[in-house]
Every structure is written in structure tokens, then in C-alpha cells.
Design a protein that fits this description.
The strands form 5 sheets. The chain has an 8-stranded mixed β-sheet with strand order 1-11-12-13-16-10-9-4. A 3-stranded antiparallel β-sheet has the order 5-7-6. It has a 3-stranded mixed β-sheet with strand order 8-14-15. Helix 3 (26-65) packs antiparallel against helix 4 (69-105). The chain is an alpha+beta fold. It has helices at residues 4-9, 11-19, 26-65, 69-105, 143-149, 155-161, 171-190, 204-210, 235-238, 295-312, 359-364, 388-398, 412-415, and strands at 125-130, 153-154, 168-169, 194-196, 201-203, 222-223, 228-230, 243-246, 252-261, 280-290, 317-321, 333-341, 346-355, 366-369, 375-377, 379-387, 400-401, 404-406, 419-420. Helix content is 42%, strand content 22%. The mean pLDDT is 94.
Length: 421
């Protein structure tokens, strides 16, 4: 959530920046400023009335001491009237504050200056690329056919058990999943991240804190009876809410594996076949709570970490800096990693790495106390390191040979086998 202080300091700049996300913020920002003026006017009047109330209350005591009961009763009536008026002022302030919060929850984060202009994925900018591009023959099979051929994934059984988008992994397919999770977690721990095992369901406050709610409410599975949500990413339960750290505690670096659940309403067609888009999938997440002065250094560090993973997996990759029109609601800047799927002949997104600056922290009330005892909002960052489904799709397709599917050297200690045959 944008801070009221930032909006008041330069509302025109906020409106200009949000235009890069193709969000017209003019009416919302003007409404927030009007409500803040109402709140401050009520606060000033309340302060005056409270001072007057204190004086009158003292008068009542003095008049009673002097035996002037009639005069004391008159003053008491004034005190009662003031208290009722003060209740109205307090209600006006609370209503204005609630309306300000409601509006700000619907306003996205401002993109940083490095974010390119653009309306859609076609306008994203490739900033770096690498990895060996496989040269497969015309008879190369897509991963869903390879999964069936080698009995790795049973998509039909998943449909029978639950529905489309809930695959069942079997044999070496299940072992490959477990190997990738361990590989990603070990690499994160070696990079200084603390491993966390979080809950898979969260309350609404956690969803609002990270920005999944209300923006992504239609994409989240909701347990109505308990008013809990299945997590779409481990970012939600791994970030901190209602906490003040000491400056020396920063940075805080956490990593977590979790199953993730997304409704993906409206997804259909060839782009969702096989593992390309699922309702339940596995992912390892990395999260940093950073000092605002160092968050962009941390972003570069996280990008380098994800790059090292796709390089170790020997996959062709590139990094995209997302344009304003393709960014998430909460992000200040996002870099997407895509790997090339040789049999499908298309790029598949496997990671997003983002800096949210203070936007999530303001919602979460996640702050730190500086060494000179001032309280500031932290910056939050997260990234997929990595999401498994499309990584598995690319590994199966790109490494298929007449003998079987080759396992990248870095994964062999985790799988316990070097070929799927």
C-alpha cells in the first residue's frame, strides 16, 4: 500500500508513475487527499474540544468545592454536550481513515524508473540470456507424451481424483520432483537463506498484507467455513506482519518449499497442456526483508541466484525486465526468468523476482527501528527459486535422447539416477 506521506508529498508524481502501469490514479489520489483534509480538520477540532473539556471538568470540581451546585450542574451539562460532540468527531476521523485505507488497497504500487513503458508481454525487455540451446529432431516429443511414455506423471488419474490441473507424479517422476525441491533448498541455504516450513493456509490479513487480496481474490482457493485461503505462493506465510525489527537484524533472508494453489480461472488452450499451467504445483521461494538503502543490491543478488540455478540445470534461459503494463499489482520492478522448451518450441516462465520496496511492508506493518531510534518501513523482495512444473517440462523435453531422458549432472546426487529409461 502506498504511504499517505508519499502521496501528500508529491501527488502528481504518484499519478504520473502509475500511468506507466496503465492505472488512472487521479480520482483516487484526489479523494484520499480530500479525506485526509477532513480527518485533519476533525483532529484539530477534537484537540481543541478535549482541551476545553479538561478545563470545564476542572471547573466542575472547583464549583462543587465552593458549594455552587447549580453552576456546577450547568457546566456538567456543557461537559456532556462536548463529550457527545467529541464522539461524533472521533467517528468522522475513523470513517475517513477507513475510507482512505480502502481506497489505497485498490491502488497499485508505483513502478520504479527502470521499468520500461509498454502494454503487454510483447513490450518486455530481454536483459540477459544464456544456456545451451538443444538441437532436437522433428520427432521430439512434448513433455506430456514423454511423461506417459516413461510412466512419470499420470494426468488422467489426477483428473479422476480431483480435476484437471492436479497431476499425479509416479516413480522417477516423483523422485525428480523431490530431487529438485531438495536441490533448490540446498542452494538457497548455501546462499544464506534460512529454511522455513510454513502453513499452506493463511488468514485474510496475511493475504491483504502481501497484496494477494483483494487483487487476486478470484484466483485463490477459499475455505469458506473457516475463512482461510490456500496459499498461491510461499511468499504469503513467510513474510512478517505487525513487527518492528532492529536495524542490525537486517537483512532477513528466508526460503521455503510449499505446494501452491491457484484457480487460474479463464486459462484454456494449448498453452495450458501438461505441466504448463496447474492448479496445484510445487515451488521453492526466496524472500528478503531489506534495509531500503540496500534493496536494489539485494534484487541483483537474487537475480544472480536464480540465474545460477537454471545454469546448473543446463537449460537455455533469458531474463526479461517486465514493462509497466505486464507487471503485478504490488511490484515496483519485476524480472521474469524463462527457459526454452525445445519440443514445444516456446519459452516458459519459471521465476519472477521482484522488489516491492515499501508497498507490502506498509500493508504488513513490517518496520525496523534505526540506530537513531526512528521507525521506518522495510523493503520486501521475493523470487521463485524455482517453480517446478515448467522446469520439469523443459528438463524432460530438452534432454530426451534415443536411450532415454538424461539428468543434468548437478541433479544426479539428488535423483540417484542419471537417466530416465
Amino acid at each position: 500500500m502506498l504511504t499517505l506521506a508519499a502521496i501528500k508529498e508529491n501527488p502528481e508524481e504518484i499519478i504520473r508513475k502509475l500511468a506507466k502501469k496503465h492505472f488512472d490514479a487521479k480520482d483516487a489520489i484526489e479523494k484520499v487527499l480530500d479525506l485526509d483534509k477532513t480527518r485533519r480538520t476533525s483532529q484539530a477540532e477534537l484537540d481543541t474540544r478535549l482541551s476545553e473539556l479538561k478545563t470545564l471538568s476542572a471547573q466542575v470540581g472547583q464549583l462543587m468545592k465552593e458549594g455552587k451546585k447549580a453552576e456546577a450542574e450547568t457546566v456538567k451539562n456543557k461537559v456532556s454536550e462536548l463529550k457527545e460532540h467529541n464522539k461524533t468527531l472521533e467517528a468522522n476521523m475513523k470513517n475517513a481513515e477507513a475510507e482512505i485505507t480502502e481506497i489505497l488497497l485498490s491502488v497499485p504500487n508505483t513502478p520504479c524508473d527502470m521499468v520500461p513503458e509498454g502494454k503487454s508481454a510483447e513490450d518486455n525487455v530481454v536483459v540477459r540470456e544464456g544456456g545451451p540451446m538443444p538441437d532436437l529432431g522433428e520427432d521430439a516429443l512434448p513433455h506430456w507424451e514423454l511423461a506417459k511414455k516413461y510412466d512419470l506423471i499420470d494426468f488422467e488419474l489426477g483428473v479422476k481424483i480431483t480435476g484437471a490441473g492436479f497431476p499425479v507424479y509416479k516413480g522417477k517422476g516423483a523422485r525428480l520432483q523431490r530431487a529438485l525441491i531438495s536441490f533448490f533448498l540446498d542452494n538457497a541455504r548455501e546462499a544464506g537463506y534460512l529454511e522455513i516450513q510454513p502453513p499452506y493456509v493463511v488468514n485474510a490479513a496475511s493475504g491483504y498484507g502481501t497484496g494477494q487480496l483483494p487483487d487476486k481474490e478470484g484466483q485463490m482457493y477459499h475455505c469458506n467455513e473457516d475463512d482461510l485461503y490456500l496459499i498461491p505462493t510461499a511468499e504469503v506465510p513467510v513474510l512478517y506482519r505487525d513487527v518492528i525489527f532492529n536495524e542490525e537484524d537486517l537483512p532477513i533472508k528466508n526460503t521455503a518449499y510449499s505446494a501452491c494453489f491457484r484457480r487460474e480461472a479463464g486459462s484454456y488452450g494449448k498453452d495450458v497442456r501438461g505441466l504448463n499451467r496447474l492448479h496445484q504445483f510445487d515451488k521453492v521461494e526466496i524472500v528478503q526483508i531489506q534495509h531500503p538503502d540496500h534493496s536494489y543490491e539485494a534484487l541483483d543478488e537474487m537475480i544472480a541466484h536464480v540465474q545460477s540455478l537454471v545454469e546448473k540445470l543446463e537449460l537455455p534461459w533469458h531474463i526479461l525486465r517486465l514493462c509497466g503494463g505486464d507487471m503485478s499489482f504490488t511490484s515496483a520492478i519485476t524480472y521474469d526468468f524463462e527457459v526454452f522448451s525445445a519440443a514445444q518450441k516456446r519459452w516458459l516462465e519459471v521465476s519472477s523476482v521482484s522488489n516491492f520496496e515499501s508497498y507490502q511492508a506498509n500493508r504488513l506493518k513490517c518496520r525496523f527501528r534505526t540506530n537513531d531510534k526512528k521507525t521506518r518501513l522495510v523493503h520486501t523482495l521475493n523470487g521463485s527459486a524455482l517453480a517446478l512444473p515448467r522446469i520439469v517440462a523443459a528438463l524432460l523435453e530438452n534432454n530426451q535422447t534415443p536411450e532415454g531422458i538424461r539428468i543434468p549432472k548437478a541433479l544426479v546426487p539428488y535423483t540417484g539416477f542419471d537417466i530416465i529409461d
